Amino acid sequence: xxxxxxxxxxxxxxxxxxxxxxxxxxxxxxxxxxxxxxxxxxxxxxxxxxxxxxxxxxxxxxxxxxxxxxxxxxxxxxxxxxxxxxxxxxxxxxxxxxxxxxxxxxxxxxxxxxxxxxxxxxxxxxxxxxxxxxxxxxxxxxxxxxxxxxxxxxxxxxxxxxxxxxxxxxxxxxxxxxxxxxxxxxxxxxxxxxxxxxxxxxxxxxxxxxxxxxxxxxxxxxxxxxxxxxxxxxxxxxxxxxxxxxxxxxxxxxxxxxxxxxxxxxxxxxxxxxxxxxxxxxxxxxxxxxxxxxxxxxxxxxxxxxxxxxxxxxxxxxxxxxxxxxxxxxxxxxxxxxxxxxxxxxxxxxxxxxxxxxxxxxxxxxxxxxxxxxxxxxxxxxxxxxxxxxxxxxxxxxxxxxxxxxxxxxxxxxxxxxxxxxxxxxxxxxxxxxxxxxxxxxxxxxxxxxxxxxxxxxxxxxxxxxxxxxxxxxxxxxxxxxxxxxxxxxxxxxxxxxxxxxxxxxxxxxxxxxxxxxxxxxxxxxxxxx
Amino acid sequence: xxxxxxxxxxxxxxxxxxxxxxxxxxxxxxxxxxxxxxxxxxxxxxxxxxxxxxxxxxxxxxxxxxxxxxxxxxxxxxxxxxxxxxxxxxxxxxxxxxxxxxxxxxxxxxxxxxxxxxxxxxxxxxxxxxxxxxxxxxxxxxxxxxxxxxxxxxxxxxxxxxxxxxxxxxxxxxxxxxxxxxxxxxxxxxxxxxxxxxxxxxxxxxxxxxxxxxxxxxxxxxxxxxxxxxxxxxxxxxxxxxxxxxxxxxxxxxxxxxxxxxxxxxxxxxxxxxxxxxxxxxxxxxxxxxxxxxxxxxxxxxxxxxxxxxxxxxxxxxxxxxxxxxxxxxxxxxxxxxxxxxxxxxxxxxxxxxxxx
Lengths: 530, 357
Ligand SMILES: Nc1ncnc2c1ncn2[C@@H]1O[C@H](COP(=O)(O)OP(=O)(O)OP(=O)(O)O)[C@@H](O)[C@H]1O
Ligand SMILES: [Mg+2]
Prior knowledge:
The complex is a heterodimer.
Chain A: E1 13-22, E2 25-35, E3 40-44, H1 51-58, E4 66-71, E5 74-76, H2 81-86, E6 89-92, H3 104-109, E7 115-116, E8 119-120, H4 122-135, H5 152-165, E9 170-174, H6 182-197, E10 201-205, H7 209-215, E11 218-223, E12 226-232, H8 238-246, E13 273-280, E14 284-291, E15 296-300, H9 307-315, E16 322-327, E17 330-332, H10 337-342, E18 345-348, H11 352-355, H12 363-375, H13 383-396, H14 413-425, E19 431-435, H15 443-458, E20 462-466, H16 470-476, E21 479-484, E22 487-493, H17 500-509
Parallel strand pairs in A: 3-10, 3-11, 6-9, 9-10, 15-20, 15-21, 18-19, 19-20
Antiparallel strand pairs in A: 1-2, 1-4, 4-5, 7-8, 11-12, 13-14, 13-16, 16-17, 21-22
Chain B: H1 7-17, H2 21-37, E1 44-46, E2 53-55, H3 56-79, H4 87-105, H5 111-139, H6 143-162, H7 172-179, E3 181-182, E4 185-186, H8 187-205, H9 208-217, H10 219-224, H11 229-253, H12 267-277, H13 289-308, H14 316-331, H15 333-339
Antiparallel strand pairs in B: 1-2, 3-4
Helix pairs in contact in B: 2-13, 3-8, 3-11, 3-12, 3-13, 4-5, 4-6, 4-11, 5-6, 5-11, 7-11, 12-13
Bound molecules: adenosine-5'-triphosphate and magnesium ion (MG).
Magnesium ion (MG) is lined by residues 51-52, 412-413 of chain A.
């Protein structure tokens, strides 16, 4: 599908021997990077390899200690995001940085409004916005609608339109797909390809190898802040890529396989948690559910299907307005996170930035936060207890750098995610609800986390596992609860013959999804990416 | 980067980054100005009659006590991401209650009456603090609005309690709280220091500090981590109310009169300033009690200096404003970067230069 583009003779961006150090870490050590017009170039590397740092050097967020940045052949000193924008470089971050309370059109045109004799001419501005959106195949959006009515995926596309209005020649996408489902990823890729064909240079970061191979023409691999090489995607097989990324051959990434699927799951014992008609208006219809010790239950469904909403009710992150929950056969009230935690339930939210880490606290404080909250403020953990938790989980989850006193915001995205997982494991839960726990985590660490989840289940913990990556759900779960349009539509006992496709079909057979998400799907989007 | 700094240079650099460093400098400068005016300004003498310490410094410390009380409470409230505008009004209510009680008790020497008046004042502080807490955490009003309501209602309440009078009373033990001496030091100062230390220990030895910071930094994440936001906010606003109640006692006991229109008037602003000078961000999150103490001392020094220099009382606010603005500028990251002769970046960057190498 990907038409290989012959590299133009002059790179639009050239970074030569870039070094950036943070106290105690050499985040980038003499890294070279080239980006050509009309190509999609993926930056690959493990968590903490330096991808985001390289991007921030290019966008003027960090100043480089050493090296040179050439844009369009000219040496540039980028000392702020405004400099980067002047140089035609735009970035769409994973967390969309648009204004929720403005309209779509206002967001697209922000700073580029059409001016008339009496200030801004809104009619013309909105018309220009429609033009810009049309170029990306988003002509059906109404520019006067507030941005907040759009799904995250479409917001991301709006952010790209905005970058195009700013006449960017370089578009940077740092993990843009980690919260999108398969259809939405295809929609995004369609837009990326269109821009590439218009000659825009696109720098892309993702931990999903499938996507990387589907979209990119070229890759640059980093390891521990060091440049490993630049490769044409079609010339670098996956195994070789992974080996380059982690610096050793790996044979056993897929070793943890359907063995879980073959386990015996006859549950004669009482479920740890039983929900009867549990629901909340507007987010999830009344649902019955049983969760057993030692069982991994996957929640599968598209974004907005109600999988996150159901999980939130089970912990008390949102308050159910109907139905009952029985914990070990006893009716309990789980209406707040505090109550959920008291019943040995743990819930790791999909929204790492807003509902996960506390940015300004240290890694240590983030790790012990839930345990401490459970004990209450009057019973502080002793220093020894804290150290024990910190040492244990930093090592077990392989958090790098393993420095507990660093503010967590200085960790790379994937390492923040690992710390969060540690926070919940430290509470010794009997029911662990993981919403997208592997988001933003590199291939190696993903396998490690999957193994951890399997091991927890073997120890008798009941696990709810949610992921947009259906393969991952199928690989790990004993039972799969399929959701669609805010209700449970099926429960599938995992076993041989259960595949991601089966689940996709189950969802599809229930009819075309209605509601907000249908708004942007183009006919080609229905297909699931290869 | 200059990695090869000498040890003293590094220490100096670290000192410059301590949020309340400039507060200490400002206190020193103000004292210097006073010394230039009167070389004996700093002298502390021992009163031969009773062994008490007397001097301008002692006066400053004594004056700092009420500000210290409310600033400590304010610091905790601000750390949760809130603000407590009502402390000045709570002071006058507590003062009014205490004075009315003592006036009615008419027992000029009774320790018991003094104790009861004190507890009553504190209880009123706690109740008003609880009202703040309920408005903020249960009703879900903005802290600014909730406490503004009490700011306005409180002074009215005080007037109702005293029927509009500036009630005076006499009770020696009560007066002693503000004017007495213990081991040569003003009781009020000892009392304030004790309470500050107690609050500091409570907050840092328990997990209260961590939880307050967590909800101030990121309320959503803190909630999902299981922190009980509601009860924590209640605790903090009640604590602020209690501390304001105690400050109200300090403020009225020294003159044994409650002035319903002046007691505690605009003291909430002093408290907020003390907290900000101490390096705690109004946005909430990390707080610094030590810095708050420095801030309170600075405000007291400033007040005394203004009087000492004979600056007209109408110019006082302007003088205060200048000092505060300069301080805040010195604390700002941007300005400090300018000082280091670097180009300030276009956007605020968690720039690595701010972390000690
Ligand atoms: N502001 C900062 N202060 C200190 N260290 C930092 C800072 N930002 C990044 N680092 C460190 O630099 C290294 C590279 O981080 P970076 O965010 O670039 O990784 P990444 O490749 O994007 O990883 P991920 O895939 O997890 O997002 C990490 O060790 C990280 O801890
Ligand atoms: Mg990153």
